[in-house]
Structures are given as C-alpha cells and as structure tokens.
Design a protein that fits this description.
about 400 residues, Rossmann fold, 7-stranded parallel beta sheet, 16 helices, 13 strands
Length: about 400
Amino acid sequence: MRVALIQDGARGHYGLAIALRRAGILESVYTDFYATPATVHSAVAAGVSRMAPAVGKRMSERYAPQLQDVTIRQSLPLAASLQVGSRFIHPVSAYYRWASQRVGRWVRRVGLGNADVVVGFVRNIDPDLCRWCRDRGLTVIGDQMIAPAATERAEMRIQQQRWPGWQAGGTENDDFFSAIDEVERSTWQNVDHVVAPSRYVKDEMVRHGVSADLVSVVNYAVGEQYTPQDRSADRDVITVGFMGTVGLRKGIPYFAEVAKRLARPGRVRFVAVGPIELTEHGRREAGASVELVGKVPRSEGVEWLRRFDIFFFPTTCEGSAYVLMEAMATGLPIVTSPNSGTVAREGEEAFIAPYDAIDTHVALLERLIADRDLRLEMGRSAARSYRQFDLEAYSSRLADVIGRTARDRG
C-alpha cells in the first residue's frame, strides 16, 4: 500500500502521519504549511517569530522529525490564502466550506503520485476530493476525530442554555454545525471506511444513521515525549489540572463549579491550560476559582502535565481526547466523563461519571486529594495501561484496517 495523507494543520501533533510512517505505508503528506528545517518555510516561521513570537513559535512547531524521510507536499500560497480567508470570509460556516474545497482543488491539481490509498480527517477532507479519488480507483479512508456534528450541536445547545453568557455563539454556532453536518454526511457517503478513535464516537455515528460495518474503532496514541513523572514526593499543594480549549464543549463550567467547592489556598488549586473561548462574563465566573493560564506552545504543555497531580476533564463531546492519553502517559490519575472517549478504565486509571454529575465529581476528587496512595497507584496504572495504546499498537491497528479495506475494495 502507498498512502497519501491529507493533513489538516498539525492535527494530533502529526500522530496519524507518524503512525502511517511507522507502518511503512506512508508515501506523502499534503498540508498547507510545514516547517522543514533549513527551508524557505522554516525561514518564514523565523521571520514571523520576530514580529509575533507566539504565532512564529506555533508555525515552527509545524514539524515532526519522525517524518523527515517522507515527501511533504505543501504550498505557501495556499497557507496564505487560508489565513486571509479566515479573516475575511464570514460567517464561519462559509469559510469552512470554502477552505475544504480550496484544499481539495489544490490536491487534485498537484496530483497524488503513486498513492493507491488516501486518508484524511472527516470534516476537513473535501467530499468532492474523496469522490474524485474513488472514481480513479483509490481506496479512501476517513478519520472521524470527534463525535458527529449532530451530537456536538445538541450538546452545545444544552450548555448554552445552562450557562448563558459564558461563550459567544448561538445562531452562528447552529450555522457552523449545519455546515459540518452536511460535509460529514457527504464524506461518509464517499469513503470506503471510517476509523473512529473511541467506541463513543462509533456509537454516536451509528445513532445518526451510519452503518456499523463502515466504522472501525482504532484508538489514538501520543508521542514518545510523554513519559511517567515521579509524583511520590509529598506536596504541600495538590494541583487539579485541565488542558484543552477553555470553553463550553470541554466542560469548563463544571470544572469551575467543582473548583468552587474544593479549591483551598495553599492546599488545593485548580488550573486550566489552553486557549480561552469564554466571554468576559465567563472568564470572571471561571476565574473566581480556577487559574486560567491561556494558550501555551505544545512544548510547554508537556511541562504543565508534569506539574499536575490529578487530571480533571468533564468534557461534553470528544472523539478520544489526545490530552487524556498524554495525561495517562505521564502517570496522572484521571476524572472524566464518558463523552471523553477515554481508553482509561473505571476504577483502575480513572473515575468516570457524567460531565454534569457535580456532586459525584466533588466526591471523587476529594477522595483522590486526600488519598496519596490511591493517586499514585492510579497514576502508575495509567502509565502501564497507556503502553497498550502506544504508537506501535496504533500503527499496527491502523495498517490492518486500511489493508483490509483496500483488499475488500479490490
């Protein structure tokens, strides 16, 4: 098999590309911007860093050394047009459709070389590109990185009703999810198979009309930079951490409600790391009990995970959150919701309860805060369990599904 991957930005820290490379089947990656060292692209990133350090750093991190022998097809004009389009094409739903189609046209123009399989992220890969590839005899695989748009929209409506004024949106969100729903359903009709990162995602797809035979669960893995952290030393302050977009979908109001009951100066702190989507009202409400760090580069995210003692993630809708895999790899005990799609096991590496079961989450976190031995044992179990879902395992399962699909199609 020779796989061409349509890569959306640096999604998943290039985890899908790295897994395909590990399996020996990745021929090329198509993306808008990739900062290969000693190229014009890395020079552009360095130039941007002088004017906007944070933006430049994120651009320079659009690189994975594990892919150094893989053909990367990219386009500075495409990258620039997508950035300009994001500023001037409104509403977001219109930009979303435009960007997907623009990338699809670019891939068709460049050509897919010797590839006989195309892999892309559902929602980002252009359905017309999928149809074009299948018409030419290529096998097309979609990666459904999150539950369907219909599920996400329903959850967002619930959160907006419960937490009015916390996050902007409303009608625009409905338009955006309608656009995603349209793209998803068209993509499902024009791929040969879909890989889902969790049973939660597959179940939601089936609930919205997708045949169970079209979907295989292939759990994600994370990079090797995430290693177990020794947390055995006594700590004066226990840090309950969150990492991800600080907004309604990730359940930040529930994180804040629990923090109001448990945060104690000098004893227990609640910290949220990630880009903040809240309004000023939402910031004030969450910030009353939670330290809002804001967006940090990926390299700093590893350091923040090492500072945490417990990872609390009451998300309302996911695929299988990468950050939970990262937390497991660093040896953190987890408290999360079923909607996270986590691979962690109830009572072993994690306590799992509905995202809005605030009393339950308070009791579970109180138990972990008070019981050092339990924290450490669950953390050690997380680090051990993660090895079942490492890059080697992910790569093998992914290659197996792609191979079976290609043979069935042939």
